[in-house]
Design goal:
heterodimer; A: 206 residues; alpha/beta; fumarase; five-stranded mixed beta barrel; 8 helices; B: 289 residues; four-stranded mixed β-sheet; 12 strands; 25% strand
């Protein structure tokens, strides 16, 4: 078990199990302790290619955590520069194959598409949001940062992070819940919006 | 007597421009303008969702940490958009204005430990230029002998949500309202709300887009000088905040801190509308040389 409830907060450390993920619900505040791996667009393209060619991956996926981040360079004497999340939607096409290989938690910002949400349910995994644009605050929780693969990609290289108390909010749980859709519905004021109607995501996709 | 004309020309050396641009890049990345901080505070006080309120508290904390410890507000230190208003009585000496601005951006991003996010060969190899150059430069010639610089580091998350449409002229306020609301709702958390919404109305296609970009550099809380436009800004802000998207799209009553509209006369057949969103880290720095 890598989920601990302590002092009113949920603490997560990898490796995460199905049982850990089953305890998480939309809107839960969690704090991460331990290892997470960074990957963005370019690294995802290479990882998916490696899977296709049966080549070794830069880090293990089973029970692990990916954080979508490309930090700014660290000043001398510092571990990390600014390190907030990037837009997750761009990584949607690459995500289901990683979940199928045991990835348990993803941290980014903004919503996920229906294919990712289905894969989270199918493979018992969770998507969390860190606060976008809070890069200085999040940087303070990073205690170690090592580039472990694809160094040529610069800010987009794969990094292994050791974090202490990295804060995130559960956005999509393994039960199909979606914080962003539920939150919007709760605070929407149709009387002020008048004639304006939303286009449901399904209609747009179709 | 013939009317007096100003024959005096003020010289500005490119080295001074480079130095100033570098300073502005570093400051913009670490110190959020007072008007934006005030906007975030107002949002935090008025927010009805407890979760969204917590997000806003942490964003304000981030502002303090960034300034105190010189860690950039956001890791995405943007495409560097530089707007230069150059007086027609100014003579730039020692080299090219464009090179001077780019040298300043390169210096500011390298020496300031800011992220290099610009890639060349955009549709093929996408090779990082390593120092965030070239900047996107808009130079305007204005009367007088002043030289005003605005540096806007524009993040990718919000810039990617930009929308443009040429509407039927009769669509008017109603068409613009629907377009703005849809753009913001469908962007969700991607552009990092609470936003500064820039709307450019009129001109030609590229000019409407420029107006929208200019609109996001207007101070948060400063209304349009035109009363009809100011009224429309207030109406739109109320509606945007009724969408329920909220800070970081977790649901809430503060989706935008401001809606700023800039207009320009346009063609009889046309109603160009550009929407450019700016994230809560609405960074910009100004200076006069």
């Amino acid at each position: 078990m890598s989920l601990v409830k302590q002092d009113g907060e949920i603490r997560l450390s990898p490796p995460l199990t199905d049982e850990d993920v089953a305890q998480l619900r939309v809107g839960d505040h969690v704090k991460f302790y331990g290892t997470m791996y960074t990957s963005r667009d370019a690294a995802h393209r290479r990882i998916i290619a490696a899977i296709g060619e049966g080549k070794p991956l830069p880090y293990p996926l089973e029970g692990q955590i990916i954080y979508y981040v490309g930090p700014s360079p660290a000043r001398p004497g510092r571990v990390a520069g600014s390190a907030g999340p990037t837009t997750s939607m761009r990584l949607d096409p690459y995500t289901p194959p990683l979940l199928a290989r045991g990835l348990k938690a993803i941290i980014g910002k903004g919503g996920r598409g229906s294919e990712v949400k289905k894969a989270l349910q199918q493979h018992k995994a969770v998507y969390l949001i860190a606060i976008g644009g809070a890069g200085a605050l999040l940087s303070k929780t990073i205690k170690q940062l090592d580039v472990i693969a694809y160094e040529d990609l610069g800010t987009e290289s794969v990094k292994k992070l050791e974090v202490e108390g990295f804060p995130a909010i559960v956005c999509c749980d393994m039960y199909g819940g979606d914080l962003l859709l539920e939150g919007k519905e709760q605070y929407r004021d149709q009387a002020v919006l008048g004639d304006y109607v939303s286009v449901p995501p399904a209609e747009k996709a179709g | 007597m013939a009317t007096e004309t100003n024959t005096r020309v003020r010289e500005i050396h490119v080295d001074d421009i480079t130095k100033k641009v570098a300073e502005l890049c570093e400051q913009a990345a670490h110190v959020l303008p007072d008007d934006v901080v005030a906007g975030l505070r107002r949002a935090e006080r008025s927010e009805r969702s407890p979760l969204a309120k917590q997000v806003l508290v942490e964003l304000l904390e981030n502002v303090d940490i960034s300034k105190r410890e010189m860690i950039p507000l956001c890791q995405d230190t943007g495409t560097t958009v530089v707007m230069a208003e150059v007086g027609q009585d100014v003579h730039i000496v020692g080299g090219s204005l464009r090179d001077a601005i780019n040298a300043g951006v390169g210096k500011g991003y390298t020496e300031g430990y800011l992220r290099a996010s610009i890639v060349d060969h955009p549709f093929s190899t996408r090779v990082n230029t390593k120092n965030n150059t070239p900047a996107v430069i808009h130079a305007e010639i204005v009367p007088g002998d002043g030289f005003h610089l605005t540096v806007v580091p524009k993040g990718g998350g919000c810039e990617n949500m930009t929308k443009f449409q040429i509407m039927l002229p009769g669509r008017g306020k109603e068409g613009i309202t629907e377009f703005v609301l849809r753009t913001i709702e469908e962007s969700g958390g991607n552009p990092c709300p609470p936003l500064v919404v820039g709307v450019g109305v009129g001109g030609s296609s590229e000019y409407a887009m420029f107006l929208a970009k200019k609109a996001i550099t207007r101070r948060v809380g400063e209304a349009s000088a035109d009363e009809e436009t100011a009224q429309f800004e207030r109406e739109l802000l109320e509606k945007v905040n009724a969408l329920g998207v909220g800070p970081q799209a977790v649901g809430g009553t503060n989706t935008a801190m401001a809606v700023n509209i800039e207009t320009y006369p346009t063609h009889i057949t046309s109603l160009p509308v550009a929407v450019n969103l700016q994230c809560h880290s609405a960074r910009s720095k100004h200076a006069d040389l």
